[in-house]
Amino acid sequence: MSLFDLTGKTAIVTGACGLLGRNHCWALAQAGANVVALDIQDGLSRGVANHLYGSGMHLGLGVDITNRTSLEAARDQILAQFGRIDVLVNNAAINDMFENPAMAADLSKFENFPLETFRQVLEVNVTGMFLASQVLGTPMARQGSGSIINVASTYGIVGPDQSIYRNEAGEQPFYKSPSYPTTKGAVVNFTRYLAAYWGKDGVRVNTLSPGGVENSQDEFFIKQYSAKTPLGRMAAATDYQGAIVFLASDASAYMTGANLVVDGGWTAI
To answer: What family does the entry list (predicted)?
Structure first.
């Protein structure tokens, strides 16, 4: 089990306050890492870090991943406290959300999808990943080792099945929008680029593509999603902890440029 040991390693997770982000932090802490929880809200980030258990020390910082100055300040503080960066989990992302649910069915259609929303999702999901990798990954390349894990989605591999968002009455209250699949597809290929670029410097770069996580969605959606999944259910938020530790640790020492799909078989059929 020493292959999975992260004792003495410094692991950064962006989007640390989200459902999966908190679980990524917990798993890395349990493996022995010093975990740095990054999110846009400083207080929430510190709260996540304060609730972690493990042999390492943990830090929570408020960071805007679309702002280079914000990332550089975080990098300097992390290096001052821990001396190195070993793991970066690019988890922060914007998913489909509309402030007015009554307008979601209309605005989420491709024909009507707002350009400003598309650009905002690109800015966080793609530009933010690029900047975080550049600012926080460069110290890894300089030290000659490290692991970057870019979190994508099954919708970075296959197109959305819009029928699973249709309720029992045949109404479509929501369409999976074009922005999320577009950006998650970009995550997969950015991983390949960076793996090829930084391989000579000992930095491994891989994608984790999770399936849908059950999180109080409408019952009709959970049922229809589960019916399309060979394992017969949506993921639990804890189902990706093993994959994160695997990709972060020496257990995956000869793995780079890969896309680890953990989706209950969703993309297998």
So the answer is: Belongs to the short-chain dehydrogenases/reductases (SDR) family.
